[in-house]
Amino acid sequence: MAIDELVPTIDISDPSDDEFAALDRACRDHGFFLLTGHGLDALIEETWVQAREFFTADRSLRVAVERDDQNPLGWFDRELTKRKRDSKQVFDFTDPNTPAVDAYNRWPDGFDRFRPTLAAFYDAFSDLAERTVALVHRALDLPDDVIRDHVGDRTTSSVRLNHYPVGDPVPENERDGLRELGDMALGYHTDPGVLTLLLQDATGGLQAQAANGDWVDVEPRPGTIVVNLADAMQVWTNDQYRAAVHRVVPMTSTDRMSIPYFFNPPRSAVIEPIGRLAGDAPRYRSFVWRDYMRARTEDNYEDLGADDTQIADYAIGATATG
Ligand SMILES: O=C(O)CCC(=O)C(=O)O
Ligand SMILES: [Fe+2]
Q1: Does residue 297 lie within any of the structural domains?
Q2: Tens of pLDDT along 61-92?
Q3: Which of 87, 121, 194, 257 could bridge across to 152 with cysteines, CB 3.0–4.6 Å?
Q4: What residues contact residue 42 under an 8 Å CB cut-off, 6+ apart?
Q5: Where would I find the Fe2OG dioxygenase domain in this sequence (predicted)?
């Protein structure tokens, strides 16, 4: 199938009925679509500049904001996906404009425009994520009282700057005792929250899994933002909409950057299938967002001797993977 047909483009400034129909098909099939009409090109351009500056600066400036096992925010270059090491370095931060959570952010020294640019980016993408969830609600034809309980929260959300080098991101003299690199730069996975807004540069390498299991390239389209549905949305819709399974192939000739905004539910939200979508056959048991997130974060730090926590662990009838 052609990529245009598989991954439809929705103009968020004025979505047509045909675009809603295409969004609904894509969400049932694989969970990926593209947004245009967002009006954020200039801010996105400036964000790329800041991300590149951070990743090309002297490594010691990044090491100074390295994350630790108490706090997952900051820089890291040896993350695991499915027990294999990813070929990338990342910088994670949460809402810079809410002091109670900004206190956990680790801002690097020596980059004047980094924090203000990323703070503006965070504001704009929080708003866009809300509007994107509203598109999905409309495609699902949900009543207002249900919509109110199935939203995201900017203070539990986060942004990640991803940098994929050619080869191993960890310097040779630090590789002793680390797990081997995976076959993929980023192993296949779903994102945990409601949905993700993803920017990718012009390099390419992102792949989506279609319903038939085939891997399809999500080619860069200038001016568009990739949306992928995530785990909480799949649970809410009782599997009618799919959390997008995706991965990134290894870089062979040039490095690559991407910037996902992960839109997450409120901390204390109870995640379970929406009654009118599940009828009397809910496919998941309830879990509290905070607990799910804690389990997923712990997996990424170290190999806990089991596969990563995922929503399948909450499927009714599932046996624990641990
Ligand atoms: O780099 C990409 O295109 C995807 C990144 C991603 O899936 C993630 O960070 O969760
Ligand atoms: Fe992802």
Answers
A1: no
A2: 999 999 998 999 999 999 998 889 999 999 99
A3: 194
A4: none
A5: 155-265
Ligand 1: residue whose CA is nearest its atom 1: 258
Q: How many beta carbons lie within 10 A of that of residue 61, not counting itself?
A: 14
- Nearest ligand for residue 200 CA: 1
Q: Give the pair of three-digit tokens for residue 10.
A: 């929705």
- Report the SS3 class of residue 35: strand
- pTM of the shown model: 0.95
Q: Which residues pair with 262 in a beta bridge?
A: 158, 196
In a domain, 200, yes or no: yes
Tell which atom from ligand 1 comes closest to the C-alpha of 88.
Answer: 1
Cβ–Cβ under 8 Å, residues 158 and 94: yes
Residue 17 vs residues 24, 129, 198: alpha-carbon distances, Å: 11, 20, 24
The domain total for the chain is: 1
